[in-house]
Amino acid sequence: KGLGGQKHQRASQIPSQFSQGERVAMKEALKGAIHIPTVSFGPKELNTTALAEFGEYIRSVFPTVFKTSFVQHEVIGEYSHLFTVQGSDPSLQPYMLLAHSDVVPAPDEGWEVPPFSGLERDGFIHGRGTLDNKNSVMAILQALELLLLRNYIPRRSFFIALGHDEEISGHNGAQKIAALLQARGVQLAFIVDEGNFILDGFIPNLKKPFAIIAVTEKGAINLMLQVNTTPGHSSAPPKETSIGILAAAVSRLEQTPMPNMFGSGLLKTTLQELAHEFPFPTNIILSNLWLFGPLVSRLIERNYITNALVRTTTALTMFNAGVKVNVIPPVAQAIINFRVDPAQTVQEVLELVKNIVADNRVQFQVLSAFDPLPVSPSDHQALGYQLLRQTIRSVFPEVNIVAPGVCIGNTDSRHYANLTTGIYRFNPLYLNPQSFRSIHGINEKISVRAYETQVKFIFEFVQNADTDQEPVPHLHEL
Ligand SMILES: CCCCCCCC/C=C\CCCCCCCC(=O)N[C@@H](Cc1ccc(O)cc1)C(=O)O
Ligand SMILES: [Zn+2]
Ligand SMILES: [Zn+2]
């Protein structure tokens, strides 16, 4: 182990071009990964056989990663993987790339091809995990494998953390890796995880794609509502049953959206950065949000995806009641999943919920909750943000806008908040509304070309992280 006095190969000397054989091998490697059904079914239900197989699989397709002296590999929480790539310059603060190998379930119904087949059709690799998030697991390891094969020795150390239970909250994977690194005294320059994309077709009138790097993510609350009533014979029902009372309460919550927080959020900054990409008069409207803010926020909340950017969302996800057709139900339970807007806290949302329900027969139990994540810097000095921006510009020259934004879902990166102030959630892939719906939905797929570009992105990103960053002059120095 050790660098053995080898000289640093200067960044950007290695072009991000891959041979025909390498391109075939990289797509075949992804197909093989999709084929392993690493499904997280529920809080403690994982396909551990598949997760173990996946561990063996990455060893077989990325042999150079596993045999290189300056790459250390550890298995954490039985199925998660932590790689430490020792750079040649210990004065540079390390960074971390995150991804997860587990996927949500995918019953065959509705799929054009079986979800765990990894079949290639019409230039696309089909299957669960092609966008969320085996693409990233495989692309990160693939890029490292190719860099190592070209004798690249990184200057800046970095970690690769591959969680195995992100889809069920990351308690045994990301959380344990974070605790281990904290115990080792590691502090990171920044983290890059999944969470946002190059967005295409989400905003009417905006034909051009734009990259959003999520610099924060929403909080979340899983709240159980419960109503208990006296059971009895259904032939003489009381005026109200536990089911009726609970149904009315959850319906009030669904019909009463949480307040629109447009004015207090990051979205204003995002839209201002997008303004000059729009034709007249939208460009003028977005450049003058002090005047047109109320109009814009009403338009944004009309669409269910963009609505998630302006408020805490309320999703009724589970409902359980009744024991027999002719028994008045003693208990009714519902679970509501809230995604907390960065301008609010869990406590504020719970207060609003109780006021909306306004029925003391309804009991509340918080099953799990966490506040929105801190906002990571996106200024000229923010290394992680600027490296992403630089690499987006080089790999996707057609993308004019790179802006900071909010991740509406949650990611494993939240478990690492003690290790860095710079958490960036960005997948170097195009996403349109149809592909957005395929994530956790049906017909998830990635084009072979998009996957190759993701590998290229990471291949360049690692090298960019090794270049000396030009200090950005302050205005008064210009
Ligand atoms: C002006 C800009 C328009 C932008 C339009 C918005 C587009 C949205 C784009 C991408 C969002 C995709 C989010 C993917 C990341 C989410 C990953 C995920 O599914 N995480 C789970 C994690 C989790 C959390 C809690 C649990 O109990 C289990 C799993 C999630 O549900 O959030
Ligand atoms: Zn994911
Ligand atoms: Zn997911």
UniProtKB/TrEMBL annotation:
Pathway: Lipid metabolism; fatty acid metabolism; Amino-acid metabolism
Catalyses which reaction(s): an N-acyl-aromatic L-alpha-amino acid + H2O = an aromatic L-alpha-amino acid + a carboxylate; N-(9Z-octadecenoyl)-L-serine + H2O = L-serine + (9Z)-octadecenoate; N-hexadecanoyl-L-phenylalanine + H2O = hexadecanoate + L-phenylalanine; L-phenylalanine + (9Z)-octadecenoate = N-(9Z-octadecenoyl)-L-phenylalanine + H2O
Taxon lineage: Eukaryota, Metazoa, Chordata, Craniata, Vertebrata
Name of this protein: N-fatty-acyl-amino acid synthase/hydrolase PM20D1
InterPro entries the record matches: Bact_exopeptidase_dim_dom, Pept_M20A, Peptidase_M20, Peptidase_M20_dimer
Keyword annotations: Carboxypeptidase, Hydrolase, Metal-binding, Protease, Signal, Zinc
Superkingdom of the organism of origin: Eukaryota
EC number: 3.5.1.114, 3.5.1.14
Record bears the keyword Protease: yes
GO biological process, alphabetically ordered: adaptive thermogenesis; amide biosynthetic process; amide catabolic process; amino acid metabolic process; lipid metabolic process; proteolysis
